[in-house]
Specification:
The chain is an alpha/beta fold. It contains 13 helices and 12 strands.
Length: 327
């Protein structure tokens, strides 16, 4: 019965939260309450909430909100990144944290290749010209960059990076990669990848540089003025990691001066960018709103993992995807 289900706090059901078909998965096991409804009377509802379901970073697990949830047992975040969570602080409250690894990799790798292709072949510019009422001829400015046979440098060869390499092999791309640790010879052979111990070597040789590394404090500003200057003037930078991995001021300058040819970004800092940010007005910058995992089937898998983790936490069982502080 519904009255027997544990309570969970969510952002909302609707366009800015969960589609109803996703909310249904949570409703099978939990009584869900939107943040807006909760904040109307937190004293009444706070004791009930045992689970915080975080989707697209909302509701934010701020100290102020957590203080209103004395019975909270777990924060279940959709996706793999945890840089938006203060893990030590949340754990200090006796609250567990879980994410949803493995189920987002295919969708993210697909989207990464979509960004690469769209930028290289100027697909969005072509759409605008095709739809423009005054178009009479196809301009030569739509001449794009050949993807087949080009060199792709992947920085971050984890699960997502490796899946990108698998897809790139289908385009007969030469694949270079830089990672904290080298993958096995079998993994390399399967996708035809060459390890670059020095990231600078990868930057100098690549036609496309793909950032798919896990975000850590050490990766902030990994790509700045110096790194961009090492890239080919015909190269494209693609970022599906986190916005802070790239020095955006340096990127704006590199794109304006054509130090590099183009950038395709699914992540920025902040998100969304201020409407007057110079990146938004550059014709050689393709920007999407952090939608790499946004496919219906992947979203359902994410929600199901969130629910499975939450059920385990509420029952006092081991949480399948518990995130613990890095030692």
């Amino acid at each position: 019965m519904a009255a027997d289900k544990p309570w969970a706090l969510i952002s909302e059901v609707g366009e800015n939260g969960y589609y109803e078909e996703l909310a249904v998965i949570m409703k099978e096991h939990f009584q869900i309450m939107s943040l807006c409804d909760f904040l109307q009377n937190p004293a009444l509802h706070g004791q009930k909430i045992q689970v915080l379901f975080m989707w697209k970073f909302y509701p934010e697990a701020t100290p102020a909100l957590l203080a209103l949830l004395p019975s909270l047992r777990v924060v279940c975040s959709g996706g793999t990144g945890t840089d938006h969570l203060d893990i030590p602080y949340i754990n200090s409250l006796g609250v567990k944290i879980a994410n949803t690894p493995h189920v987002v990799s295919d969708a993210t790798a697909d989207f990464a290749m979509g960004l690469l292709l769209a930028s290289a072949r100027k697909i969005f510019e072509g759409q605008e010209i095709a739809k423009a009422p005054n178009t009479a001829i196809i301009p030569q400015s739509l001449m794009g960059v050949e993807v087949t046979g080009s060199t792709l440098g992947i920085i971050g060869m984890g699960e997502v990076g490796y899946k990108i390499a698998q897809r790139s092999k289908g385009f007969d791309m030469k694949i270079l990669y830089h990672n904290r640790s080298r993958r096995s010879l079998e993994d390399e052979a399967a996708v035809g990848a060459t390890y670059c111990e020095n990231m600078d070597d990868l930057l100098k040789m690549s036609d496309f540089v793909m950032l798919s590394l896990r975000f850590t404090p050490q990766s902030i500003g990994l790509i700045g003025h110096r790194e961009l200057s090492l890239m080919k003037p015909t190269a494209t930078l693609i970022n599906i990691s986190r916005g802070l991995v790239v020095d955006q001021d340096a990127l704006v300058q590199a794109l304006q001066l054509t130090t590099i040819q183009a950038a395709a970004l699914d992540v920025t800092h902040p998100e969304p960018l201020p409407r007057d940010h110079p990146l938004l007005s550059l014709p050689n910058a393709l920007i999407t709103p952090h939608m790499g995992i946004s496919s219906t089937s992947t979203a359902k898998k994410i929600i199901q993992k969130m629910v499975d983790n939450a059920i385990a936490a509420v029952k006092g069982l081991p949480i399948p995807d518990e995130v613990k502080p890095q030692l």
